[in-house]
UniProtKB/TrEMBL annotation:
It comes from Marinobacter azerbaijanicus. This is Iron ABC transporter permease. Gene3D superfamilies: ABC transporter involved in vitamin B12 uptake, BtuC. CDD domains: TM_ABC_iron-siderophores_like. The lineage of its organism: Bacteria, Pseudomonadati, Pseudomonadota, Gammaproteobacteria, Pseudomonadales. Signal peptide: none annotated. It is a multi-pass membrane protein. PANTHER family: FE(3+) DICITRATE TRANSPORT SYSTEM PERMEASE PROTEIN FECC-RELATED, FERRIC ENTEROBACTIN TRANSPORT SYSTEM PERMEASE PROTEIN. Keywords: Cell membrane, Membrane, Transmembrane, Transmembrane helix, Transport.
Amino acid sequence: MLTSLLARTSGALLCLTFFVVAMASSLVFGNIPVSLDMLIASCLDYDPGSLEHLVIRTERFSRTVTALIVGAGLAIAGVLMQTLTRNPLASPGILGVNAGAMFFVVVGATLFSLTSPSELVWAAFTGAATAAFLVYFLGQEAGRGISPVRTVLAGVAVTALFVSFAQGLLILNQNRFESILFWLAGSVSGRELATIVPLLPGFGLALLVALLLSRQLNLLGLDDEVIRGLGLRVGQIRLLVGLTVIVLAGTSVAMAGLIGFVGLIVPHMARGIFGTDHRWLLPMSAILGATLLLAADTVARMIIPPQEVPVGVMTALLGTPLFLYLARQVRQLS
């Protein structure tokens, strides 16, 4: 773990370097290879007659932006959930928040013919809030408050419930299956930049709120009586954090579907490097989350060309071993 300011600053610069490399790789690699010179030329002197320029501008740029936003959003949502619940296993994917958002997206798309992310995001917010309430209610243990083990079990049950409902709804509506399939698997492809832009103000506001709450988040690990003694309103802070998680997770699902484990992996990576101070943990989690999803998507499109593996499959392959390890650690401590 980096402790001094100089070490943390150096670590942050190194993470930023990896982020830039991952973003450049996302724009360069694919079924149609593009050189760095061609990439720079497409930005400075766009030629609509060039196939490479067209691919970069119309497909890869929006794909890269989507992966960047979704990765950062899920990572910060994971940090907030782990801090809020004091549970190292908490994340939007594990606790069913993503699954709830995804189910309501499927409902909106199949029953109400909603198509663009700016329309579906409201359904995603509703689903994320519903799932969060269910998990919070089911995770309560009489006389002891929220139980980490019960919360995870509740999250698994809620996830299975909403995913089953979504699959059943799609079976009954075969005509919409192809257009909704990528939400079930998780994918950052096929998003037009014009459909992403309307989501950015709300997403940016949620990120800003999370960063502004960094000092208060550092205190949430203390007992509630101690926090109140410091003059903070615990209930209001937790409500604001919960709403921020719903916005971040809901927007991510509306943009890219069911991508799991980013919110679980990245907070532990960032915490292991930069410590538990949320003034460092939140921004560095955003950078690492964006880097991870960009790298996973780049690898996913190169494994079995010209076919692409959904990026949700790649994050599951990375996250499942870590989840099992963390679950074992929690069980030993309980």
